């Protein structure tokens, strides 16, 4: 069992004053599995271990080196619970990225954030498949679609999107289709075909997350 002492964290503003740089000492915890998540992290220096508890045993999902993003579920789900533990294997530096930070960054650099979305989805599939507990899959789907729309990506191939989302949130394709068809019934999405007769999802509402939240009120 690893004994972790009270960590000393230094924080300073970086990148035009919008982000925080956090220094994490060797063996200190960035976040624990089961804790509430409100930010993601970009590793710029050092090495981070991502692990989880599988059937009572520690399972190392990944050893991250710069530049890597982790803790990304917090950017997609409200009341998200951390599905893994992140520990510094050596003195490290991470940039703290909140949901608000991400939204601002998307407005400034949509091409870069489109690449980050690809990384996030891939990471979600490979590191949280066995242990993830998602409090709101529907809202997670909305958040991902909202990120694509913010980047100007308004048409998605239907079958690959359903498959990726089902693997990401560890659920069935049928369940994802229920959420997508529900959004279509609300007029936020349209299901159609492209000129090549490939089934697609058209995002009709650019600010999808806000639109969904307003409908809940």
From TrEMBL:
Protein name: CRP-like cAMP-binding protein
Domain annotation Cyclic nucleotide-binding: ranges: 28-123
A GO CC term assigned to this protein in UniProt: cytosol
InterPro entries listed in its UniProt record: cNMP-bd_CS (IPR018488), cNMP-bd_dom (IPR000595), cNMP-bd_dom_sf (IPR018490), Env_Response_Regulators (IPR050397), RmlC-like_jellyroll (IPR014710)
UniProt GO molecular function: DNA-binding transcription factor activity
Record Pfam families: cNMP_binding (PF00027)
Membrane-spanning segments: none
PANTHER family noted in UniProt: CRP FAMILY TRANSCRIPTIONAL REGULATORY PROTEIN, DNA-BINDING TRANSCRIPTIONAL DUAL REGULATOR CRP
């Amino acid at each position: 069992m690893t004994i972790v002492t009270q960590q000393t964290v230094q924080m300073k503003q970086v990148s035009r004053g919008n982000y925080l740089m956090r220094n994490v000492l060797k063996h200190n915890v960035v976040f624990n599995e089961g804790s509430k998540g409100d930010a993601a992290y970009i590793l710029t220096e050092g090495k981070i271990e991502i692990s989880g508890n599988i059937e009572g045993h520690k399972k190392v999902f990944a050893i991250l080196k710069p530049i890597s993003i982790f803790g990304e579920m917090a950017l997609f789900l409200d009341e998200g619970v951390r599905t893994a533990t992140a520990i510094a294997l050596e003195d490290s530096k991470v940039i703290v990225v909140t949901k608000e930070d991400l939204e601002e960054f998307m407005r400034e650099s949509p091409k870069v954030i489109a690449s980050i979305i690809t990384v996030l989805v891939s990471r979600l599939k490979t590191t949280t498949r066995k242990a993830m507990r998602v409090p709101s899959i529907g809202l997670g789907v909305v958040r991902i679609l909202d990120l694509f729309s913010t980047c100007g990506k308004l048409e998605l191939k239907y079958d690959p999107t359903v498959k990726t989302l089902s693997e990401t949130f560890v659920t069935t394709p049928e369940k994802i289709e229920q959420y997508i068809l529900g959004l279509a019934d609300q007029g936020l999405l349209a299901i159609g075909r492209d000129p090549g007769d490939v089934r697609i999802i058209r995002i009709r509402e650019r600010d999808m997350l806000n639109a969904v939240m307003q409908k809940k009120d």
